[in-house]
């Protein structure tokens, strides 16, 4: 992860912000940022159904920090099964989201830096594909397109034109069809509830 963060730091002005791995002390700041930027409806999105009760994929929860070490941006990726292939074998992938940047720092490259670091780290960790629900004009510059997600569905309402995918390994999503389901690590409290 250090090499990824160093390359992102070199690309963007380190005096404005840095990209770092999220730590437990960032939880409250991250949640407050998401509430401010995305509003209360963020918890009703289809993507949230996949994230609920889960931990992000190992090493794939990132934050942007300002010069005073405050969290000004966040992105997380989650382990999922992206339907199945033609042989009915589940396809392991990641779901990206939410990506959010403090309003004061919009247009300063924070979101782009978080995206580039997240995609690079996912690739370095051997993941094959990333899916997300978001604005195509923004995410297409990072290689995300609707074509590879066209036969996949989210567990709840979603806009087909905003359901995008990026293959980190060419052909990873070939033939992918079906429902996106979570496959990542459970939060400790979710595991206790499930066992009861």
Helix and strand composition category = alpha+beta
Strand percentage, roughly? 25-35%
How many distinct helices? 6
- Major sheet: size, sense and barrel closure? 9 strands, mixed
Tally of strands: 9
The count of domains is: 1
Taking all Cα atoms into account, the compactness measure Rg is 16 Å
SSE string, helix = H, strand = E?
Answer: HEHHEEEEHEHEEEH
- In helices, the fraction of residues equals 25-40%
Unreliable spans are none
Shape: globular
Integer average pLDDT: 90
CATH fold-level label = Aminopeptidase
Write down the oligomeric state. Answer: single chain
CATH architecture heading: 3-Layer(aba) Sandwich
Task: Give the end-to-end Cα distance, rounded to a whole number of Å.
Answer: 37 Å
CATH homologous superfamily heading: Gcn5-related N-acetyltransferase (GNAT)
CATH class: Alpha Beta
């Amino acid at each position: 992860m250090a090499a990824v963060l160093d390359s992102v730091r070199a690309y963007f002005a380190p005096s404005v912000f840095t990209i770092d791995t999220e730590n437990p002390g960032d939880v409250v700041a991250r949640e407050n940022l998401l509430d401010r930027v995305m509003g209360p409806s963020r918890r009703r999105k289809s993507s949230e159904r996949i994230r609920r009760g889960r931990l992000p994929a190992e090493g794939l929860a990132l934050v942007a920090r300002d010069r005073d070490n405050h969290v000004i941006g966040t992105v997380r990726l989650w382990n999922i099964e992206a339907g199945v292939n033609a042989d009915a074998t589940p396809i392991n992938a990641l779901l990206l989201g939410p990506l959010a940047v403090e309003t004061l720092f919009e247009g300063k490259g924070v979101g782009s830096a978080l995206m580039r670091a997240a995609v690079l780290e996912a690739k370095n960790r051997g993941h094959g594909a990333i899916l997300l629900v978001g604005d195509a004009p923004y995410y297409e510059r990072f290689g995300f397109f609707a074509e590879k997600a066209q036969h996949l569905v989210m567990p709840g309402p979603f806009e087909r034109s905003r359901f995008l995918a990026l293959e980190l390994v060419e052909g990873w999503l070939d033939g992918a069809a079906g429902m996106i389901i979570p496959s990542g690590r459970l939060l400790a409290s979710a595991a206790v509830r499930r066992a009861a």
